Structure formats: C-alpha cells, structure tokens
Amino acid sequence: MVPALEFDEVTKQYNRWYRPQRVTALDGLTLTVEPGEIFGFLGPNGAGKTTAIHLAMGFMRPTAGRGLMLGKPFGDRKTRRRIGFLAENVALYYRPAEELVRFYGALNDVPGPCLKLRVRKVLEALGLVEYARRNAGKFSRGLLQRVGLAQALINDPELVVLDEPTSALDPVARVTVRELLTNMRNLGKTVFVSSHLLSEVELISDRVAVLNRGRLVRVGKTSELLASDEKLEITVRGIRPDVFPGGQALNGVVKFRIGSQQQRAALEQVWQLGGEVLSVNPVRRSLEQVFLELTAPAPAGAERISHR
Ligand SMILES: Nc1ncnc2c1ncn2[C@@H]1O[C@H](COP(=O)(O)OP(=O)(O)OP(=O)(O)O)[C@@H](O)[C@H]1O
Ligand SMILES: [Mg+2]
User: Fold this and answer.
1) Residue 46 lies in a domain
2) What is the pLDDT of residues 262-294, one digit of tens each?
3) 49 ligand 1 Cβ < 6 A
4) How many domains does the chain have?
5) Do 123 and 246 share a domain, yes or no?
6) Is residue 300 part of a domain?
7) Would you say residue 303 lies in a domain?
8) Interval between CA 252 and ligand 1 midpoint (Å)
9) For ligand 1, what atom is nearest to the CA of residue 48?
10) What CATH number is associated with residue 25?
C-alpha cells in the first residue's frame, strides 16, 4: 500500500536576512505515515512541526531531501484535492461561515450536487449550524478553528493534515473532534495531527512521533511508548498487603508494583501464599512524561543555528 505521507531525509533551513546564520528548523526528518492510522506529531515550541507540515503541503521547498504525499511529490496540485488541511492559525475572510466552507469545497472540486449536502454535513458535525450565516470574520478562536476544520473536511479527504486542531476548542468541541477523527480512521482515512495537547493525542493516536529541535527523537506505537517495561502492576486477592513493598489493599483486593524481572517470582509467591492473581498490567506512563523525558534538557524554543 502507498504510504499516506513520507518524509525522506527532509531538511529545512530558513535564511535570516539580518544575520548570516541560518536556522535549521528541520534536520533530516525521515518518517512514514501509513494509510488508515491516526498519527500524532509532537514536539515543544519551535521543534519544527509546522515547518514539516508546510513542506508536506508544498507551501515551500525543503533545503534537502524529498517527500511524498499519497505517493506524489510534496506540493502536487492534483493530490491537494484529496487532502484536508487545517493551518495552525486559522484566518478567514469576512464572509458567512457556510459560504466559506462551500467556497473551499468548490475550490477542491467537490461536485455541485454533492456540495450542498457535504456543507450541511460538516457544519452539523462541527456544531456550526447555528453559526452558518454569521460572519466568520468576527468569530471567537474556537469557532474559527471549527470552521477551519469544516473546510479541511469538506472534500471528504483521504488524508487530513491538522496543525494543532484543538488548541482553542472547549471540552465539548474537543470530544466532537476526537470522534470525528476516529470515525475518519474507521473509514480507512489517514489523520496526521500535530498537537500540544498530549492527553488528547494519547487518546486517539495509533502512533506518535516526537520531534525536538528539528530532529526526530522517537517514533512508535502510542501504547508501546506509554508502557514502561520496567514496572508492572499486579492485582491479587487473598494475601496481606504487606507481603510486597508498597502493597495497597482496597475491598479485599491488593495492588502492588514490581520490576518486570521479578514478575515470575512475585506470582509464584502469591500462589504459594494461597492468593489469586487477578491481573498483571504494564504501568503506563502519561504521554506528557514520555514527552518531557524525550525533549529534556533542550530548552524549549531554542533555535539550531547553521553557519553554512
Ligand atoms: N519563516 C521563518 N523564518 C525563519 N525562521 C523560522 C520561520 N518559521 C519557523 N522558523 C523557525 O524554525 C523553527 C521551527 O519552527 P516551527 O514553527 O516549525 O515549530 P513548531 O514545532 O511548529 O512550533 P510551535 O509548537 O510553537 O507551533 C523555530 O526555531 C522557528 O523560529
Ligand atoms: Mg507550529
């Protein structure tokens, strides 16, 4: 199957007219996003997420390397119609929300007869029906983001690229967007989403990549990244809580944590004492913890300078 998105050694340096040095925003990024997955793209401020997204969308060219979107080179015009895109900072014209979404659909060649229905569907999906005829130029940040999402989804895209899609949304709208994105995945579509809201990404992403100062520091299945193989939580019944250090009892059930190396010995000890093992689970770290570990000690927002 053709990958949804491929970065192959992509580097981007920005020139700064006022200084001879260049900023290396992206440094040899190699990454493949498979079709049908929700892929979380994480990194602290200035990590290069927006740069990578803008390169993929063809808004600018890489300094080195290349990439493919749905099997076609970055910036391919025909492919653009099969993609939905939400920019980090949504800016909209002073027009009614509905009109803007319709305009975007027409721009992306959504055929006339379908367009009306699609507009209604996306406005409904994003809770925008009551705002449809209002001037989007005066919308709050959250509403703007919702119209931006409606625009990104109007052409029923195969791949949707979202740069911080939920940063301005209230909790209800966040749940809505989460459901929308998981539905898209269930329909076999691909979602590439950058976010600072780690808990959000944790909930929906199949895989995540962590970028720091332009470099990829980790990529993997969200579940694997969150499972710390060092610790296991064991839940048992029928033993005293003080048998294992840190054991805690609640309603006759005892929970304790051990290193994975001691799993076998601990279970045998439980059985020997006449206890019953109810569950053994890897202790999950939060994505926030993983993120902090991976991106420390680099100062957030620090720029990498090149003298070439
Ligand atoms: N047009 C530009 N000219 C010069 N430097 C730029 C430009 N755009 C971005 N940079 C620099 O490139 C680096 C990466 O920026 P980018 O916006 O891609 O990061 P980001 O991960 O999207 O950050 P954030 O989480 O704050 O949105 C930063 O050091 C930034 O200052
Ligand atoms: Mg950004």
Assistant:
1) yes
2) 888 999 999 999 999 999 888 877 777 777 878
3) yes
4) 2
5) no
6) no
7) no
8) 54
9) 18
10) 3.40.50.300
Q: How many angstroms separate the alpha carbon of residue 52 from the centre of ligand 2?
A: 9
48 lines ligand 1 (CB under 6 A): yes
Residue 23, token pair as written in the block: 């900023």
Whether 290 maps to a domain, the answer reads no
Choice between 233 and 227, residue whose per-residue pLDDT is larger: 233
**Of all helices (H) and strands (E), which one includes residue 60?**
none
268/167 same-domain check: no
Ligand 1, atom 24, residue with closest C-alpha = 45
What is the side-by-side order of every strand in the sheet holding 276-284? 248-250, 253-259, 227-237, 276-284
Could you identify the atom of ligand 1 that is nearest to the CA of residue 164?
27
Q: Same domain for 181 and 68? A: yes
Ligand 1 center to 301 CA (angstroms): 8
Question: Could you tell me the two tokens for 199?
Answer: 């808990």
Rounded distance between C-alpha atoms, residue 66 and residue 62, angstroms: 7
Distance linking the first and last C-alpha atoms of the chain: 39
Distance CA 42, CA 45 (A): 10
What are the tokens at 155?
Answer: 């052409």
Here the tokens at position 69 are 């979107």
Q: Are residues 39 and 129 in the same domain?
A: yes
pLDDT in tens, 182-216: 999 999 999 999 987 777 788 899 999 999 999 99
Q: Are residues 232 and 162 in the same domain?
A: no
Ligand 1 neighbour 303 (Cβ under 6 A) = yes
Closest CA to 195 of 204, 183, 185: 204
Q: Is 189 in the pocket of ligand 1 (CB under 6 A)?
A: no
Does one domain contain both 46 and 187?
yes
d(CA 115, CA 106): 7
For residue 122, count other CB atoms closer than 10 A to its CB: 24
Model confidence, pTM: 0.81
Domain that includes residue 267, residue range: 228-283
Is the Cα dihedral 92, 93, 94, 99 positive or negative?
A: negative
